[in-house]
Structure prediction request, 150 residues.
Amino acid sequence: MFRGVYEHQIDAKGRTSLPAKLRETLVGAYDERLIITTALDRCLHAYPVREWEALEASLARRNPMEPGVKTLMRLYVASAQECPLDRLGRLLIPPSLRSYAGLEKDVVWAGMVKVIELWSREGWAKAQEEARQEAASADVMKVLSELRHA
Prediction:
């Protein structure tokens, strides 16, 4: 499982290092490839190839004309690109994906169980503030309660 928050930088060519802890999980449980796509938030989602293929298989079983499915395919699947790690543990993030998430210099990697989020530092700070404001909602407390009793 991916967990933790790590700050890194992205260079002018669009390369950034996958944090060592996340890399250990990726290589230990999967291989050295990630599928990176635009998230519904202004960040990127990075999936191990096997997890991405499972998501695609689930989507393929759905009716592609169903509004939510079509939208998800346009926003999520169409933007997806395979990004392998180089021998130094770096990924080259394609320009269109960097632009979408506003990745310019300082980036934040956030482990989210089976997916990794990649944010600009400012975007992550804003998302964290919004999450803290929402944390007291009944929905969050219900999920936490259900997890404790599972």
